[in-house]
Design goal:
single chain; alpha+beta; Rossmann fold; OB fold (Dihydrolipoamide Acetyltransferase, E2P); 2 domains; 5-stranded antiparallel beta sheet; 20 strands; 24% helix; binds adenosine-5'-triphosphate
Length: 352
Amino acid sequence: MDVRARGSLRLEGLVKRFGDVEAVAGVTLDLPAGKLISFLGPSGCGKTTTLRMIAGLERPTEGRIYLDGEDITDRPPHLRDIGMVFQTLALFPHLTVAGNIGYGLRIRGVPKTEIDRRVNELLALVSLQGLGDRRISQLSGGQRQRVATARALALEPRLFLLDEPLSALDANLREQLQVELRLLQQKLGITTIMVTHDQREAMTMSDLVVVMNQGRIEQVGEPLEVYRRPETAFVASFIGRTNLLRGEAADGVVRVAGRPFDVVGPVVAGPVTISVRPEDAHLHTTQTPERNALPGRVVFVRDLGELFECYVDCGMDEPVVVAGSPRERVHVEQGQPVGVSFPREACVVVEG
Ligand code: ATP
């Protein structure tokens, strides 16, 4: 069977209650085969619980789970054809690297020569050739992560589940392994679901991002689509940074601080919130345009070498952040009166 044709998952009305706590409050979702999907959201939003229900480690209070059209809701974890890497990795410290990777094959009674062959293949796959005899305690954090990945893939599962797989690693190694894991997933074409609270990780690795909040799905989409077209203020603020401009709509015209704004999408009369990414806003030191712009005063400037940022008090709840390349920076001083403009195509209505 072509691995790319397997591993489509359907979650139907999934609910999980722990006593009074509704950890997952009705999740319905179709996940296509062969893709990497991340569940992204703040601590406690229900992403791990959803993943654990898919793995069979938690029983849903309500709802069904279908893998390739088969109802697996009541099936025990070891019969689900799922490989999983936990945050803690949960490697067996008394076994060697090869012992860990071949563990599942041994349990299933695969002959030793076949196990050796598969283990060598998997060691190469995760760039650990020659380290099969090492003890787990003799490995670096990144190497341990690779062993856990190889062990989870040994049985060629239909679904590969990752629960915050890189959270224990330092920032540089983490970025490197994000790319490595993504390349591996693309090479194998294995349907993968990853839980993370790190939006950069989700955007680096995913075909689809599922943003969760308080047990519910807020938005599902391709990473850039979710970034550029957030549907709610929560998504806009959680994925990257954003400026939220509060205004009013009347007679088809949106006004922020009394100034007219052209925006993306339809608006209804009443209060509106517009999200504009810092990199889409522009600074003006001479004349502030009439439309889609606000006057203000510079409160803080920083140049990080790779990024220039200017914070401007425009009378909103928070200072407006303007970001850009230092090479194109507009020179301004703290306290200087300036204008900030927000191009129409960058003004996304997230509420109202
Ligand atoms: P984190 O990133 O912190 O792991 P999460 O989004 O994965 O967060 P969950 O672990 O799914 O969130 O938890 C969702 C909610 O359910 C939380 O309020 C949590 O305290 C609660 N919860 C999870 N597991 C249990 C349990 N076994 N018993 C009681 N409450 C639980």
